[in-house]
Specification:
This protein is α+β, with helices and mostly antiparallel strands. The protein is built from seven helices and six strands, in the order βββααβααββααα. It has one domain. Strands 1, 2, 3, 4, 5 and 6 form a six-stranded antiparallel β-sheet that branches. Strand 1 and strand 2 form a beta hairpin. It is globular and about 55 Å long.
Length: 184
């Protein structure tokens, strides 16, 4: 699915984004993303890092775009974003259900290599915005290529983290399970 991020900057190291499934009047809010600097990411615990993805590939591939701003400004923005990390939570899976936000929220990850994105969707996006992902990739070849922290992109290593919806009664019973106790 296509994701449109509307971003605000909290400080030098933290941005927050509301994610919509389009940029038209009928677009649905489908989630949020927190974006942090490489400096801040390095301070996270190894377990926390597993919830985050690198933006390196999205930037360098040309797949991440900032439509409506001059090319030089977009390039400068991408130079800043290339070393950032995102924690994305989708609350409405609009590619599956357009009427209601059903199901559990999901931690989402970013693309990390060629061949992962649906090429038909990418071409439709490029046509709609009058851009070329391949041209953007070429124009970004001079952007610094930071090392990706090995704790990020945990899904590539099969270490998936997701929300689990549990029944409160089942959860409470599970907490109290333990050695059998007698009372007199």
């Amino acid at each position: 699915m296509e994701a449109h991020h509307y971003v605000s900057q909290i400080n030098e190291d933290i941005h927050q984004a509301v994610i919509f499934d389009g940029n038209t009047s009928d677009a649905k809010i489908m989630g949020i993303e927190y974006i942090i600097s490489e400096k801040l990411f390095k301070t996270l615990s190894e377990e926390e890092k597993k919830l985050w993805h690198s933006h390196k590939y999205e930037v360098l591939s040309g797949e991440l775009i900032a439509p409506g701003i001059p090319e030089i400004a977009e390039h400068e923005l991408m130079e800043k974003l290339v070393s950032t990390y995102g924690k994305t939570i989708h609350t409405w899976h609009t590619d599956q259900q357009r009427d209601l936000p059903l199901g559990a929220p999901m931690i989402m990850m970013g693309f990390t290599k060629d061949g992962q994105i649906n090429s038909t969707l990418l071409k439709a996006r490029d046509d709609r915005f009058g851009i070329s992902t391949e041209e953007k990739r070429k124009n970004r070849a001079n952007i610094r290529k930071p090392e990706t922290d090995p704790g990020a992109n945990a899904w590539e290593k099969g270490e998936l983290r997701q929300f689990v919806i549990t029944n409160k009664a089942d959860s409470a019973a599970h907490k109290h399970q333990g050695p059998a106790q007698q009372s007199h």
